[in-house]
Fold this sequence. Notes:
single chain, binds alpha-D-galactopyranose
Amino acid sequence: MSDWLSPDVIASAPGRVNLIGEHIDYSQGFVLPFAITYRTTAQLRRRDDQRIRIRSKQRMDEVVSTSIAELNPGSQGGWELYVLGVIWSLGISEGVDIEIDGDVPLGAGLSSSAALECAVALGLNELFSLGLSRKELALLSQKAENIYVGVPCGIMDQSVSLMAESGSALLLDCRDLSTTLVPFDLGASGLELLIIDTRAHHALVDGEYAKRRQACESASSKLSISSLRDIELPTLIAAREKLSEEEFKRAHHAVSEMARTLEAVAVLRQKDFAALGELITQSHVSLRDDYEISCPELNCAVDVALAHGALGARMIGGGFGGSAIALVHQNQIEMVKGEIAESFKSNSFAEPRFFTSLPSAGAEITKKLVR
Ligand code: GLA
């Protein structure tokens, strides 16, 4: 096993927090995520046969051993499916050993799966000199998750993991994957972004996510538009009777969230954090009431943060658990954490975990093959 110790390439990729623009990537909207400091690392080594071996530093005794010929979209498995999916979607035809390590909190809705996919994708791109762009790698990582793993995610998480830059949030236009960096410096204004992992179940694979996507798609088709990107709020409201009540609510979230995201970029450029906080809270209300993907733990974290001075707070990611964010004055962080922990306890929820993160760099190669 000593050959695991000398990789040809080491690549790493971060998880993400989405500031605003939730559940609109698959409606071709705008999203505003940033990369967090927590990262996944992939160490890769070429083999001279067609075998694939995968292991994780967190579970050194388990080695997944398979081969290129055995790659099969839709097969059963655990976390290694994300790695195998990327090997498959990148069309790799030679064997490889991959060792994974990292500190992206698992199951917290901070995109540990995209971090894993993107570290492997960037590493394979380097190892096999594929010459793929970051945008192409994001699309192929998404393909791995959609088809190989079977999770119908959008393109936000992979894009930010590959294209983010430190100190900025990334405005991503999910229609053409063009990006604009938006400087995001809370510290200079005495603020911090608190990440609250509710430890509640994340139900992305359970069908609710797919149902939301379908509702947006059927609303678009009834409105004769290619996606909800193509309609403004007043027009949607005027066309309400063409849609079922459920389709209207889902579309109302998507269309209003796209407008909020662009407004958030404008207020962020003016460093108007009070206005940013309001938009973040409006996003939560829309996700809770129109999109119906929040849960008691997320609502509790948001409500308690707002009641104790946060400028804004909302659930992030797929919904039904995972994390919330709160924009908090630095000198109130400990008090807000304490209040949330207390409230979780009195509601008999699991004990929450707290994180914080500056906007960090996207995926990087830290060791290259010397030819
Ligand atoms: C998950 C998906 C993303 C996006 C978010 C919701 O993280 O992977 O593509 O749809 O949910 O904004």
